[in-house]
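Closing statement on the manganese (II) ion sub-project.
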Amino acid sequence: MTNLFPSPAWPTVPVLGEAAAYPVHRIFCVGRNYAAHAAEMGVEVDREAPFYFTKSALMTEQTGATVPYPPGTENFHYEMELVIAIGAPVFKADLETAKVAIYGYGCGLDMTRRDLQLAARAKQRPWDLGKDVEQSAVFAPITKAADFAAIGPQRIHLEVNGEVRQDAKLEDLIWKVEEIVSHLSHYYHLAPGDLIMTGTPAGVGAVVAGDVITGGIDGLAPVALTIGAAE
Ligand code: MN
């Protein structure tokens, strides 16, 4: 049977050293995974279990893009994050199984309509309008896990127009990468194509049209985004 209208291909993210790209099927995002960021958001970290929200894979944007300032917000925020790329089916996994299912890591930006997220939070409503924003999941090329050092003292940082706004270390992650993959695998059949954004450190803030965002993690390809005029 043919389709009624053209269906877009899965968005993809390049992989360093590979001719083939990584197709993005799902994007899971961890909330509150750095204590200093939770504090700046006026909340405490729930240390019993991580929590998640999602973005549609169609919200994927490539590093280096210029995206229009999105509609419906007056407080559009950057969040610099370590991204996990799943490389094998993983379901109800223990920590060791979860770790070997990680294909690679990348730098990502979880762009957020903060005013809408906080309004939803205050009313105990879902965060979709704040988080599932068009072109809001910005991914740098993926580095294979074997080519990345053990997660620890790597610096994770973000600049706006060259000025440092976020500056932390991956060892500050409250939920470690294998803990996140293991926990999430008790709710989903994780599979290749699933990306997990692991949360942002302190220092989030607003951007305006014309701003240039750059972000990096030691040992990974950097991510960049330019904010264009509102449509
Ligand atoms: Mn985030």
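The CA atoms of residues 57 and 106 lie 16 Å apart. With this model delivered, the sub-project is considered complete and its resources will be redirected to Aim 3.
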